[in-house]
Amino acid sequence: MIDPLQIERHGTVPVGRLSGEVDISHVPVVRDRLFSALDNHGNGLVIDLSDTSYVDSAVVNLLFELADRLGTHQLRLVVVVPEGGLVDRVLTIVDLSSVADVYRRFDDAIQAFGTEPSSPASPPPARP
Predict the structure, then answer these.
(1) Tens of pLDDT along 39-57?
(2) Is the pLDDT at 11 greater than 90, yes or no?
(3) Going from the N-terminus, what domains does the chain have, and what CATH number goes with each?
(4) pLDDT tens digits, residue range 104-123?
(5) Of 43, 94, 117, 125, whose CA is between 20 and 30 Å from 66?
(6) 75 contacts 45 by C-beta, under 8 angstroms
(7) Which residues have CB under 8 Å from 107's CB, separation 6+?
(8) In the 3-class helix/strand/coil scheme, how is 8-66 assigned residue by residue?
């Protein structure tokens, strides 16, 4: 089974990037890894679905579970869902935005946490 989840950090915000077709067979491992990525230093979690072409109902349930569990700890779930694809249609139908902040662009999602997106190609700002 191909691992559809990559986890990285932007400041104190953990980011889970899902890619490809993600279904029930991936959910137990994805759930465990996402919850393990959380700590007491951040104020939420970003799930980036920009490279995800398919999600089934188990993944949809996982997103709602994440939102619920994070909410009980006063943490935010932010989900990146590009406009117009199958994943966007599914998550619109189930009204994911009723439990999570949904953004169309990754940079906007990261900025919602007050963290600048990292850009390894950019040099650090010049100091006077």
Answers:
(1) 877 789 999 999 999 999 9
(2) no
(3) 5-111 (3.30.750.24)
(4) 999 999 998 876 555 433 33
(5) 117
(6) yes
(7) 117
(8) EEECCEEEEEEEEEECCCCHHHHHHHHHHHCCCCCCEEEEEEEEEEEECHHHHHHHHHH
CB 33 within 8 Å of CB 4:
no
Residue with tokens 């117009």: 84
38 contacts: CB under 8 Å, gap ≥ 6: 14, 45, 70, 75
Over the Cα atoms of the chain, what is R_g? 15
Q: Is the confidence at residue 3, as pLDDT, over 90? A: no
Q: At 4, is the pLDDT very low, low, confident or very high (cuts 50, 70, 90)?
A: very high
Specify the residue for token string 């902040």: 101
